[in-house]
Design goal:
Blueprint lengths: L1 H47 L4 H14 L4 H13 L3 H13 L5 H13 L3 H9 L8 H13 L3 H13 L5 H13 L3 H14 L4 H13 L12 H17 L3 H14 L5 H15 L1
Helix pairs in contact: 2-3, 3-4, 4-5, 5-6, 5-7, 6-7, 7-8, 8-9, 9-10, 9-11, 10-11, 11-12, 12-13, 13-14
Length: 285
């Protein structure tokens, strides 16, 4: 009887130790899984910000194929495809994201962005229309403005551009787009004001500088505005103004500006030299 009791106690102890071992092993495995998730999250962030977007595409495509239920990997694939300059595949990826469990309104915004990049304006408009108006983000309204622009719905475009500019602390890009929209409509004065605002927010934005001189040239203001510029940029902007002047029939002014551009550039300014040669040949003929 005594032996039986000892055996029972021993067996209970062994079972208890075995249970402790299994519990400890489960905790270790759980901790390792948590570490792996953290490491993978960090890797996802690294790949999304990778200098080589094609490498990121390969990573997320492989990871998502192995884990098709992971919406974070699907989003990573869509984002990396846009960065890689493949909007058609990005649109397919984002469409899939919008059908997955856990999909959010912002996923539809990203889909609309990809569709606009592929020129699918009707689908982009329908996608944006499917998003509740309560979802108010900078990107959503920037895209709404672009769609309204494409439809020549100017009042809506202006309203959306204004809202978008108010929803970001870096409005230079949207102000530049808004200004270009105004310029294409023939409202050069308003365009000039918007490009100037863009440069106040981002003084080194050359696209806004170039658009600014175009808007001024459209008003026959052929002098350079007082803005921050390098010597090379000064030459390039003079070239832009010269071409605008010539296009508007102010040939003598354009010729002088081309000469200034060539003399201003710190190196040989091939584009301006060709423009001046073509102008002289045309005048002689």
């Amino acid at each position: 009887m005594r032996h039986s009791i000892i055996f029972t106690l021993s067996l209970t102890g062994i079972v208890g130790l075995s249970a402790c071992d299994r519990s400890g092993e489960a905790e270790v495995n759980r901790a390792l899984r948590d570490i792996n998730v953290i490491d993978e999250t960090n890797l996802n962030d690294v790949m999304l910000n990778s200098a080589d977007p094609n490498e990121a595409v390969g990573y997320f495509a492989k990871a998502f194929a192995a884990n098709p239920e992971r919406i974070d990997l699907a989003r990573g694939l869509g984002t990396s495809l846009v960065k890689a300059g493949d909007p058609a595949r990005a649109a397919i990826a984002w469409k899939q994201v919008t059908t997955m469990e856990g999909s959010e309104h912002e996923d539809h915004v990203e889909l609309a962005d990809a569709l606009i990049r592929t020129g699918e304006w009707d689908q982009a408009e329908a996608t944006l229309a499917s998003i509740p108006p309560t979802h108010e983000t900078f990107k959503r309204y920037r895209l709404e403005a672009m769609v309204a622009d494409s439809r020549q719905k100017w009042d809506k475009a202006d309203s959306f551009y204004e809202i978008a500019a108010g929803l970001t602390n870096q409005p230079a890009g949207v102000l530049n787009n808004w200004g270009y929209s105004k310029l294409t409509r023939g409202d050069a004065k308003s365009a000039e004001s918007l490009f100037t605002q863009a440069l106040r927010n981002k003084p080194d934005m050359f696209t806004a500088k170039n658009n600014l001189v175009l808007s001024r040239a459209a008003q026959r203001k052929y002098d350079l505005p007082v803005i921050k510029m390098t010597q090379t940029e000064r030459a390039q902007l003079l070239h832009t103004i010269a071409l605008a002047a010539i296009k508007q029939g102010d040939v003598a002014t354009g010729r002088g500006l081309l000469t200034d551009a060539i003399e201003t550039h710190p190196q040989h300014f091939e584009a301006a030299s060709r423009s001046l040669a073509a102008l002289e040949a045309n005048v002689q003929n």
